[in-house]
Amino acid sequence: MKQPEPFMKLVHQGMILGEDGEKMSKSRGNVVNPDHIVKMFGADALRLYEMFMGPLDAVKPWQTSQVAGVVRFRDRVYSAVQKSEPGLPVSEETNKLLHRTIKKVTNDIESMAFNTAISQMMVYTNHLHSLAAVPRDAVVPLILLVSPFAPHLGEELWNKTGHEATLAYEPWPTWDEALCVDDVVEVPVQVNGKVRGKVTLPKAAAESDAREAALAVEGVAAFTTGKQIKKFVYVPGKIVNLVVG
Amino acid sequence: MSTEATEPQRYLHAEIEPRWQRYWDEHQTFLTRPRDLSRPKRYVLDMFPYPSGAGLHVGHPEGYTATDILTRFWRMNGYDVLHPMGWDAFGLPAEQYAIETGTHPAETTQKNIQTFRRQLKSLGFSYDWTREVDTTDPGYVRWTQWIFLQLFKKDLAYQDRVNVNWCPALGTVLANEEVKDGLSERGNHPVFRVPLRQWMMRITAYGDRLLDDLSTVDWPNGTLTMQRDWIGRSEGARIVFGIEGRQDTFEVFTTRPDTLMGCTYCVLAPEHALVSEITTADNAAAVEAYVKAAAGKSDRDRTADAKKKTGVPTGTFAIHPITGAKVPIWVADYVIGGYGTGAVMAVPGHDERDFEFAKAFDLPIIEVVSPDGKLHAPLQAAFVDDGVAVNSGEFDGLATPACKKAMIDKLASLEKGGARVTYKLRDWVFSRQRYWGEPIPVYFPVQMKDPSADPRKGAEHTIDFDHPIGVDESGSPSACPISPTTSPETTRPAPSPAPSTGASSRRTAAGTPARPTPCLSGRARAGITSASPTPRTQTPPGPRRPTPTGCLSTSTSAAPSTRFSTSCMRASGTRPCSISAM
Predict the structure, then answer these.
(1) pTM above 0.95?
(2) Which value does ipTM take for this structure?
(3) Distance between B184 CA and the closest CA of chain A, angstroms
């Protein structure tokens, strides 16, 4: 054996408590039967809900009322794909969000942060619904991304978008790192060593632009108005630092 | 296919989901594909569920969904993934259910497995169901037994008499976690601490490796701390105390040999073998009552209450190994028999528990370690830190680490002890007297007065526990509990060599016809389900309740001349014992 220990990484699954926040037990009458959830909401809803409840290793109470949230997500993925049209161009904005989504879902699965992977897919799905028309090319990767979480939904949509075989062995979507780089960043603005506000700047903003934008921030202006700026330091993407007197 | 943006259909889970589950089944979508060495591989194995009568609960799909996501993700990333499911299906509940209802555990188990399988399939997990395993399947038991035999051969599985939590009502030994205030968690039955012959796993042989390898793994910090505490490695000394008026001695382990000069009494655990022997007649009644009371407490209960100390004197004195002074020997349950040597040297000046005890029973307290080299008598509390030796004769003035070393050297030169590393980790009590479990594949010779008699019918016999004999691997699985509705011939898979070779040919192969032979016949199996040799026709028996001292043995009629016959011994009870705890 290459490794003396049987497994190198260990993750403890957090216990799911009853709706009352107590350990599920027959005597407390707070046991949730998965059959019931599958019947009412479906298997994909149960899978999505359990992954969306919180970090895998956290102890968390079951809340049937919260299942509706993932049911809505599932249905919105379904309807976004249904209304998608082949041949439409994918806008730059959509494409960037798509690539960030692919990157985040991939990394989150690898680190077993399933809840945040679902959040990111929710963000992307909401974005698709905000579009006047949904390009087919923007939904096909989403079908693949969602399929490990909601495999029935994935297969159904894969089939509906014209694919014959199962998607179980389809190549996982890849992302273009260049499309994932943030071109604007939020940087803190310090006045005499204290953070007084934040300013959103293009990553490559020139010093003069940064200075102008920083001084326009309300919280910063309160400390600089009528004073002499003795020193101005700008570290692009990191910080704006003002010394006034 | 609807690609129109008009009125999209809704996602009808009740129609869509079972349809895809059927598709996956029919197309064998998740059949493990033949290994392609050019592809990376992953083995994703869930903890097998125990197929309880209650069915799946929502905690199961949490972990199973997580691993299914990883499995599906890796498949789509080009990995060869092995993702099977199975059932950890031996256990107490099916056995209790059998006692209550008369339904054989094998039937209950299969019924529950059907439910679990249906439930898991309804959740769309991508298991390769052709690789499903059932730990109660004789074909699986065979390998469970094989592993046990490897451990047995390497002396890592052995028998010992140890104190266990015996629950007569449940007919089994319970884990500490299963006992609450002297009652079983399941059913609230009384539980007793009794010494029983048990199978043990020599996990202590791996103490250092278990500890050292923790530095190589990426586990949660809390788990690493628990593991280190559980292993509890400590360096110290063993010290031998003589007993006044007797030839025998007892041994203690201490991490603070430097405090030996402050030992003012010794304590034996109530389970210590010497207790009954050394107690004087005057103290016998009190000691006996105390030992009996301690037997009703779990180790956890005994050590939990740190402040309230109880104990009784034996009336006998130990001889201090350095000074030759007489120190009284007490019995107290804050010392646990299974930990260390089951005896401690008490140094009330420098150990909090000993200090409490000495205060409670007015025993002398001597300061032998001082923070500043000065004396502070009378001590208001135990001083447990390192310091400088005082009141310690030739050791006076030595700093604690140097004093430890000097004391160990001195003890070694006197042949009254020496350096020793110990672990809190104890060997694992492996036996759980279970009917519904894998028989341990080891036999014991049975001495018969009348070789033709049947020990199962009460004929006089002695079982030689000191000479365990592992079943020949080819004979495994030996004697699984079987359903009365299935005949032994059909439940038994063909081992290699074929079962038809029988006990006699195996004995010939071994070349020692007089040696005891494992009983592997259908008749032997019948003897496990009940004493009746006709399992096929008997009514569902419900497992018999064992007694801690009982045993069930089966003679091999093939060798009437032998002075031995074979005992199908299931640990120390009449039942097979489960090793499903693995």
Answers:
(1) no
(2) 0.82
(3) 17
